[in-house]
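User
Please review the sequence:
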Amino acid sequence: MNSSNSKLNEKSDVYSVGVLLWEISSGKPPFHEEKNKFGLSYDISRGRREEIIPDTPNDYSNLYIECWNNEQSKRPTIQDVVNRLRNLTPDSVGNSVHGDLSKVIQNFTNMNTSEIGMSTNEQINENISSENHFSIMINEIVDLICKGVNKNEIDKVKQHVLDYFNSHNVNSKEFYNWLLNNQNTSDSIFLLGYFNCYGIGSTKDNEEAFILFINALEQDHILAQYFAGKCYEFGKGITKNEKLAFEYYEKVANKNYAVGQFKLGWFYDDGISVKKDLKMAVYWYEKAVNNGHLIAMCNLGNLYRNGNGVDKDDKKAIELFKQSAEGEFSSGIMMLAYCYSNGIGINIDEQKAVELYQKAADLGHNKAQYNLATMYRYGRGIEKDLDRAIYWYEQSAKQGHQQAQNKLKELKNN
């Protein structure tokens, strides 16, 4: 062989030749019907190969099986492959179900060996590309979850993940199966836990999710620490333990993550597993606010409005409600409407209040729905409309708002 072909003497290139020999005998590309492109790369790396085509001569099939051996040291050299092909006689080869192999082999041995690996190298590169793409997707999805959690879009994150799969034309079940076999980073372990927790690509399994979160947090995965805290707080997949939940949230908070800081503020605000301490609640809410947490903005606004744990300051309260409302948090919008309706930190503007109550009501906030119904009932900031009042009392009552249920009965009885 001349020097121009020396690169193909490496055992790694012989794998390509083995795949090409199989393709010649089959008349079709390897794994051409495979739909799970992500799983294919993993399976091939673990030794998966195409089936031998019926009636393929043993000498020929043995050769390509040796070429694609998983252990490179056991593969023949390219020169060995060419010599063995030349030694295959027409009688030993015969006719396969897909054509006369003796003619194909003759053409093959006349090829420049640099041509031999070209087509199958493209497939190998495609597999490598798929694997790299998979790793990129893991990073992007984990980042998407992290941003959603920190912005308090926890209930929306699952849909964001599903939308991501749709936009990338990826089947969530296939992605889940690959993830199941690629638990080699803290991100992949966490993500499998998240999928189990929310039933993405599989049925919900809170116990399995909790175990995976624990495994990931052992590698100091911050999101896993947060979700382990959630499992303990609400008793999902593990016995409820608010004290342990607080400890996990504290770890997240100390790494300057808004969601952990908010949780500590909430626990101190409500006295969950710790002594109620409104000053500590203010401290942690402020940190979460500085990191953009929408609920923390609203909760801190209420502490300023009522003078709990901090000096009463209506202007500071409405400033925080505005920030929360700008982030489309329904309670922030509702509280801003309440301020406009009652002149808290700002001049009364009932039309503006109605506009904001409507926005929060459309987002499903039951108290905003109740307040909007009241505005319609008495014609405050909008034309009086008892039908609309009854409609919004009904929407609020469906969500368990007791006053709305009472008002609804009152109106219907009259």
Remarks:
- The first helix runs from residue 11 to 26.
- The domain at 131-240 is CATH 1.25.40.10 (Serine Threonine Protein Phosphatase 5, Tetratricopeptide repeat).
